[in-house]
Structure formats: structure tokens, C-alpha cells
């Protein structure tokens, strides 16, 4: 496969040539007509019209971007008008070069309407936005990944089932009807018991449009429930300064609330995991309340790893949001969304945990009334800062006894909360279908970690069916009911 590159020299100032040791070029690379015509698989491929301006370094950037685009199946268009999108790789070295770049952007917008700007001028996005607010995305020089993400958002790549080795949604290890959606990598927190930031680095969020495209693929592949995961879901987008992201011709910001709003439009269950009780999480609760009342999509469920309740221990753990008034916050959330279920995990026997700290934790459980709770005994992971805090290790027998007390304390709380579902009609997603009895989960139960609903039905159900169920009884962990 070869490209015909149109290279047209443009006028540039002599200064620019000397300093930048290059000629400035306007290049409109195109695929050769026989290449496009002879490959039927390309007919559905999105087409990109590419303008490359500036020095050889920018030219190499253009080559790299085009190479990546071609590897993903994009075709190159000969004209802006026949393309799905225009990319302008700009030069910002001199005023004349900037003017030339702005001209090229204007031309792209006039002839096509969808323009992504990259290159040196992208380092000063204000100038471009001021002149052309309609530009779809602006990225800086050598920001290949960002350019690719922006292209995916504006003109998603075509999936070719005959050429692609993996299904459009990727290879999934979960059952077909639910899937995990990872929205970021790494973590900006430094909890003293955790070595994840050392292993995975600081928070790197995926732009919202990229996350949404993956979510759409999952839905197209038959997924009925998406489980949003990351190390710290409420911090989503902080690293990107909540950058704007175009999805479905609407501008969102890369942040928790916008992501929840966008996901809620997909028509499947959305479950939020690893959310910390930062104040801005309050904004998502009304979405959960609305969704629940209207049979909607953002499930009234939050998985918040509190880890402890004693301020002293939380401080030693260096937990995010340890100063937040958590009980008040939970109370406020329940006022807005009375059906909200909270699941959490706790660490028992963190170094220096006193009997008083532990009692405070039990008191918190009594007050917070969390639906589902998990606990594990502290282990001194190699490399964790907690090992070097000079705090006294808790003997294993004390850890075990506190763990048992913790579980005994929480069990009746969870059981009582479960009892309030008896007699109610709830929605259940089926995980393990059977001819007359199936196993599923309510909106308040995540797969693998929470409880189940045993469902009797006259007709056979399928995995992923969401059915109305009248709850007849509850035991310690599970509900039992009948399809109505
Ligand atoms: S435990 Fe703390 S540091 Fe580790 S991933 Fe979670 S929030 Fe980040």
C-alpha cells in the first residue's frame, strides 16, 4: 500500500527558513485512487484530509499520526469536502507561520466543518479557539495519543469483522451481559498501605469521548450492565484539567459528573465503583435518584472504600477525603436518593489502631448503615509507607478478634437492610438462567462481591434479561422472589 503525497511549497519568510532550517510545506497526503478503489474494505473506512505545515519535525509528527491512522483502518481523502474530518498540523514559529496555520484551519472548517488542530500552535489553544471556536479539538506538538483520541471521537474507526482479529469491544473475560469499563490508570493519592501509585504511577484519565466510545462498543456487543472502575473514580479528569471532550456532537468535560451523564444515555445499567466521598460526588446523586424513579440507568449504588472511620487511623493511612464529614455526607445523599445502597471495604488492625479506634469504626457502621461491607486484616505489603511510620503492629490474634467482632457487628445491619426489600417489586438482572429458577442481582448488588436474587419464573429467562421481581423473602445475604 502506498500513499501519493501532494507537497506544495508555500511562501514563508526568509527568517523562518533560516531559523527553522526547513521549508514550510503544505501537504495534502492522499491515498492513490487505485488503492482506494481496489480495496472494498476501505469503502466504509472514515476518511481524513490531512494538512501538514511547518518544519521537518512537524512533518515527522504528521507521518507518525498518518501511520497510526492507517494502521487503524482510516483512509486519506484528497479533498476536505470528501472527508469525514480534517486534521491540521500547525506551525507556530513566526507570526506569518501562525497566520498560515489559522488560514488552513479556517479553510478546513469552511470546506468540511470538522477540524482537529495539532502541532506547535496547539500549545497556545486560546488563539485558535478565539479565531475558530468551532474547532473540534486542539492538541499540542507530539501529542499523538491525544490526536488519535480526538479522531476517534469525531470519526470513530470502522470495525471490519473480516480483517480485525478481535471483536469490536475487545476480548472480555466477563460474561457477555456485563463488563468493566476502566476510565483511568494510576492514582494521585498516597495511601500509606498501598503501593499502586508506585507500580502504576500517577492518575492518567482517558478522555471522556474515548471512554464513551468503548462503552458504546460494549453496548453494541450486548452488554447490559457497565461497571465503571479505576483507582479513584471521583478524581477522574483531574490530570486533564477536566478537558472538553466531544462525544455525539456534544461537548462534555472529562469529569465524573459529565461521564455519569453521558453514560446514562446509553440505555444500560451503569454501576460506579471506587468512588471517594469528595464534595463533588454530591452532584451525581440526583442522577441516581432520577434514574431509579424512572427505571433509569445510573444505579443507586456507590462502592466507596472507606477503609476506616477513626480520623486518627485515616490520617495515618493518608486516605483521600479523610477530613470529609462522611456521615453527614451519606445522610445528605440518602435524603436525595433514599434507595441509595453503599458498599465499602475496611482494613482491620492497621498499625497503631487502638481499641478506641476500633470501637469508633463499629460505631460508624451502626450509624452509616451500609448495605454491603467487606473487611480484610492489615498486611504489611513490602514497599508500603505504612511499614515505616513507626506505629505499633497489631498482633495477629487481636486482628482476628477485631475482624470477627467487625463481621458480627455488621451482619445484622446488612440483614435488616435486606429485609426492607421484602414485599417490594424490584428489577433484577439475570446472571445464571435456569428453566424455572434463575440467579440474578438487584440494582444494589454488584457481580462477584455482593448478594444475589434467586428468581422463580414460569418462562425460561436468559442471561442479561432485566426482569421485574416481587421479593418474597430475604436471608442473611440474598433475596428470593418471583417474576411478575
Ligand atoms: S488505596 Fe489509595 S493510593 Fe492506593 S490506589 Fe486506592 S486511593 Fe490510590
Provide a descriptive summary of the structure in words:
The protein has 484 residues and is of the alpha/beta class. The chain is built from 14 helices and 22 strands. The N and C termini lie far apart (59 Å). The protein binds iron/sulfur cluster. Iron/sulfur cluster binds at residues 187, 189-191, 194, 196-197, 231-232, 320.
List keywords for this structure.
484 residues, 5-stranded parallel sheet, binds iron/sulfur cluster, 6-stranded parallel sheet, 23% strand, alpha/beta, globular, 14 helices
The bound ligands are:
iron/sulfur cluster
Helix content: 25-40%
Sum up the overall morphology in one term: globular
The proportion of strand residues reads 15-25%
Radius of gyration: 27 Å
Query: Which strands sit side by side, in order, in the main sheet?
Result: 8-11-14-15-16-17
- What is the number of helices? 14
Oligomeric organization of the protein chains: single chain
In total, the number of strands is 22
**Could you give a short account of the major beta sheet?**
6 strands, parallel
- C-alpha termini separation: 59 Å
Q: Point out poorly predicted stretches.
A: 1-41
Classification by helices and strands = alpha/beta
Instruction: Return the average pLDDT rounded to an integer.
Output: 84
Brief write-up:
This protein is of the alpha/beta class and 484 residues long. It is built from 14 helices and 22 strands.
Helix/strand layout:
Blueprint: E1 3-9, H1 14-20, E2 25-31, H2 33-38, E3 47-52, H3 56-71, E4 75-76, E5 85-90, H4 95-111, E6 115-119, H5 125-131, E7 137-138, H6 144-154, E8 178-182, E9 184-185, H7 196-200, E10 204-205, H8 208-220, E11 225-229, E12 244-247, E13 250-253, H9 256-263, E14 269-272, H10 285-293, E15 298-303, H11 311-317, H12 326-336, E16 341-348, H13 355-368, E17 372-377, H14 396-419, E18 425-432, E19 437-442, E20 453-456, E21 466-474, E22 479-483
Parallel strand pairs: 3-4, 3-5, 5-6, 6-7, 8-11, 11-14, 14-15, 15-16, 16-17, 20-22
Antiparallel strand pairs: 1-2, 9-10, 12-13, 18-19, 18-21, 19-20, 21-22
The site of iron/sulfur cluster has 10 residues, from helix 7.
Amino acid at each position: 500500500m502506498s500513499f501519493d503525497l501532494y507537497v506544495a511549497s508555500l511562501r514563508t519568510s526568509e527568517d523562518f527558513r533560516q531559523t527553522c532550517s526547513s521549508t514550510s510545506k503544505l501537504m495534502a497526503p492522499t491515498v492513490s485512487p487505485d488503492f482506494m478503489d481496489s480495496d472494498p474494505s476501505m469503502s466504509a473506512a472514515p476518511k481524513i484530509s490531512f494538512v501538514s505545515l511547518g518544519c521537518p519535525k512537524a512533518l515527522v509528527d504528521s507521518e507518525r499520526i498518518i501511520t497510526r491512522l492507517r494502521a487503524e483502518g482510516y483512509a486519506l481523502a484528497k479533498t476536505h469536502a470528501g472527508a469525514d474530518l480534517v486534521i491540521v498540523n500547525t506551525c507556530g514559529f513566526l507570526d506569518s507561520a501562525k497566520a498560515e496555520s489559522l488560514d488552513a484551519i479556517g479553510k478546513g472548517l469552511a470546506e468540511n466543518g470538522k477540524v482537529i488542530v495539532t502541532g506547535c500552535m496547539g500549545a497556545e489553544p486560546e488563539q485558535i479557539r478565539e479565531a475558530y471556536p468551532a474547532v473540534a479539538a486542539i492538541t499540542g506538538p507530539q501529542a499523538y495519543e491525544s490526536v488519535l483520541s480526538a479522531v476517534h471521537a469525531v470519526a470513530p474507526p470502522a470495525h471490519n469483522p473480516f480483517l480485525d482479529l478481535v471483536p469490536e469491544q475487545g476480548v472480555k473475560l466477563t460474561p457477555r451481559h456485563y463488563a468493566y469499563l476502566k476510565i483511568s490508570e494510576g492514582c494521585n493519592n498516597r495511601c500509606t498501605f498501598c503501593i499502586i501509585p508506585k507500580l502504576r504511577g500517577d492518575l492518567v484519565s482517558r478522555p471522556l469521548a474515548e471512554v464513551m466510545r468503548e462503552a458504546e462498543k460494549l453496548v453494541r456487543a450486548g452488554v447490559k450492565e457497565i461497571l465503571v472502575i479505576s483507582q479513584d473514580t471521583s478524581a477522574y479528569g483531574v490530570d486533564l484539567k477536566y478537558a472538553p471532550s466531544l462525544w455525539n456532537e456534544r461537548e462534555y468535560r472529562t469529569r465524573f459528573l459529565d461521564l455519569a451523564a453521558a453514560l446514562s444515555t446509553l440505555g444500560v445499567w451503569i454501576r460506579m465503583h471506587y468512588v471517594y466521598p469528595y464534595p463533588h460526588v454530591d452532584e451525581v446523586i440526583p442522577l441516581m435518584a432520577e434514574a431509579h424513579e424512572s427505571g433509569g440507568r445510573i444505579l443507586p449504588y456507590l462502592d466507596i472504600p472507606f477503609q476506616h472511620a477513626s480520623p486518627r487511623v485515616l490520617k495515618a493511612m493518608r486516605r483521600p477525603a479523610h477530613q470529609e464529614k462522611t456521615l453527614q455526607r451519606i445522610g445528605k445523599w440518602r435524603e436525595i436518593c433514599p434507595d441509595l445502597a453503599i458498599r465499602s471495604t475496611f482494613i482491620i488492625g492497621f498499625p497503631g489502631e487502638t481499641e478506641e479506634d476500633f470501637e469508633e469504626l463499629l460505631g460508624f457502621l451502626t450509624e452509616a448503615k451500609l448495605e454491603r461491607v467487606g473487611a480484610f486484616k492489615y498486611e504489611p505489603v513490602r514497599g508500603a509507607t505504612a511499614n515505616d511510620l513507626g506505629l505499633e503492629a497489631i498482633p495477629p490474634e487481636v486482628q482476628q478478634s477485631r475482624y470477627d467482632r467487625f463481621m458480627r457487628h455488621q451482619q445484622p445491619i446488612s440483614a435488616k437492610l435486606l429485609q426492607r426489600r421484602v414485599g417490594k417489586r424490584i428489577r433484577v438482572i439475570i446472571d445464571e438462567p435456569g428453566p424455572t429458577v434463575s440467579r440474578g442481582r438487584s440494582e444494589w448488588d454488584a457481580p462477584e462481591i455482593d448478594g444475589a436474587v434467586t428468581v422463580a419464573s414460569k418462562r425460561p429467562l436468559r442471561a442479561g434479561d432485566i426482569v421485574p421481581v416481587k421479593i418474597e423473602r430475604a436471608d442473611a445475604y440474598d433475596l428470593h422472589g418471583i417474576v411478575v
